[in-house]
Amino acid sequence: MRIGELAERAGTSARSLRYYEAHGLLEARRSTNGYRDYDEGDLRVVKEIRSLLDIGFGLEETRPFVECLRAGNDSGAVCPDSIAVYRHKLSELDGCIDRLQAVRDRLRGELDEAITQAG
Question: What is the maximal distance between C-alpha atoms in the chain?
Fold first, then answer.
């Protein structure tokens, strides 16, 4: 399939696909006329990338998942490097949640103090 069809089927743009290719995450084959040519495996890779980006992963963080799919696995999440990225991302999120909870607690304290003083 050509780049426009892949973009449509994956729910993204041709520009994004060229960006993924420039970063080594997508590998287009070239037809004799020079057009990019993709297959169903490439569609799976792009859908994996899009899915991970949608939940907050950075583009580079998708690389282990892409490599896992390219290695022939049914899922990009089953390889040790992918699992490590999941763990790292979860740790980052836990840290963000902790910081937000601390800010919320402080704000709640400030509000309670303001209410008491306004009294």
Answer: 80
CATH number of 3-118: 1.10.1660.10
Tokens of 102: 């601390």
Residues 6+ apart with CB under 8 A from 71: 79
Q: Where along the chain do its domains lie? A: 3-118
The mean of the pLDDT values for the chain is 96
Do the Cβ atoms of 49 and 55 come closer than 8 Å? no
Give the global pTM. 0.85
- Token pair belonging to 12: 């993204």
> From CA 80, how far away is CA 84, in angstroms rounded?
6
Residue 119: pLDDT band (50, 70, 90) is confident
Buried/exposed code over 43-58 (b: 16+ C-beta within 10 A; e: otherwise): ebbbbbbeebeeeebe
